[in-house]
């Protein structure tokens, strides 16, 4: 298993609520893969943070103007993860990500968040995350 960080937009969140999965395939995500440890000189925690941060940056690009960044942390089988670039955390998943594979959500406290920190939500709080993501900018 490998932990992946999936940037989500409002449409992906609604699909997750309706169908119980993020898709279609391929699903873009970020991950800290074992091969990075040999070349990056970073420890596991640093590599995980880099992957999470890259997913948050991608989520900013997917958020509606001034919207909140949303990232799902999920555990998937290593065999379904394809690396896009050896020097990057970007990966593609060859399967949809089922809600049962998601461990948590991370979302900006305020719309248009600029900091790297996101609030943590349990997977059972999907409706709360959707409601926050849909709130317009004040």
Helix content: 25-40%
Number of helices: 4
The helix-and-strand class reads: alpha+beta
- Tell me the major beta sheet: 7 strands, antiparallel
Mean pLDDT across all amino acids: 89
* Widest β-sheet, arrangement of strands: 5-6-3-1-4-8-9
What series of H and E elements makes up the topology?
EHEEHHEEEEEEH
Catalogue the unreliable spans: none
Query: How many β-strand stretches?
Result: 9
Percent strand: 25-35%
Termini separation comes to: 40 Å
Backbone CA Rg: 14 Å
Please state the overall shape, judged from the principal axes of the Cα atoms.
globular
What is this entry, summarized?
With 138 residues, this protein is α+β, with helices and mostly antiparallel strands.
Features:
two-stranded antiparallel sheet, 138 residues, alpha+beta, 9 strands
General description of the model:
The protein is α+β, with helices and mostly antiparallel strands. The chain is 33% helix and 29% strand. It has helices spanning 10-19, 34-40, 44-62, 126-134; strands at 2-8, 21-22, 27-31, 70-76, 81-83, 90-93, 97-98, 102-107, 119-122. A hairpin with a 6-residue loop joins strand 5 and strand 6 (90-93). The longest helix has 19 residues, at 44-62. It is globular and about 40 Å long. The termini are far apart. The model has no long low-confidence stretch (mean pLDDT 89).
């Amino acid at each position: 298993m490998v932990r992946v960080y999936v940037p989500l937009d409002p449409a992906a969140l609604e699909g997750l609520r309706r169908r119980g999965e993020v898709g279609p395939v391929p699903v873009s995500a970020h991950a800290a893969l074992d091969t990075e440890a040999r070349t990056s000189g970073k420890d596991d925690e640093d590599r995980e943070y880099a992957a999470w941060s890259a997913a948050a940056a991608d989520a900013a690009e997917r958020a509606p103007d001034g919207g909140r960044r949303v990232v799902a942390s999920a555990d998937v089988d290593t065999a379904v993860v394809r690396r896009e670039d050896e020097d990057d955390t970007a990966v593609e998943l060859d399967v949809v990500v089922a809600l049962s594979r998601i461990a948590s959500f991370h979302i900006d406290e305020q719309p248009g968040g600029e900091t790297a920190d996101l609030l943590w939500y349990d997977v059972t709080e999907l409706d709360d995350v959707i409601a926050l993501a849909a709130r317009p900018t004040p």
